Amino acid sequence: MIYVLLIFSFVFNLLCMWYIRNLLKNLVSITSNFSSMKYKLDIFKEHLSNLRKLESYSEEPVIKNLFSHIEELMDYLDNFSNEFTLLEEEDFEEEKDDTPRPEG
């Protein structure tokens, strides 16, 4: 009976490790995609700010609304990115504190 429970526990642990590994792979992929998206939106924002400098477009209401929406989106992404970065930095600091320091 104990052997059946040990085998079940072993298989269950293997499945859990496989599942966590897949979750971590997905998290890395999402982080990479988010960074790429943010970079592309930053470039887009620069193009729009260059467009804003042109006098022919600066008074257009549609263009003004586009600028305001892009700025709101960028602010939202910056806040999200800052929260995500803070979590990563805290995790890194915790790992750093756990590592043994050489004496000498």
Please give a structural write-up.
The chain has a domain at 35-95. 90% of the residues lie in helices and 0% in strands. α1 runs antiparallel to α3 (61-98). The chain contains three helices and no strands. With 104 residues, it is mainly α. The model has no long low-confidence stretch (mean pLDDT 77). The radius of gyration is 24 Å and the shape is rod-shaped. The chain has helices spanning 2-53, 55-58, 61-98.
Short description:
This protein has about 100 residues and is an all-alpha fold. Helices cover about 90% and strands about 0% of the residues.
**Largest sheet properties:** none
The overall average pLDDT, rounded, is 77
Number of helices: 3
Helix- and strand-based class? mainly alpha
Element order: H for helix, E for strand = HHH
Strand content: under 5%
Low-confidence parts: none
Query: In which range does the helix fraction lie?
Result: over 70%
- Give the N-to-C terminal Cα separation: 53 Å
Q: Give the beta-strand count.
A: 0
Radius of gyration over alpha carbons? 24 Å
Shape descriptor: rod-shaped
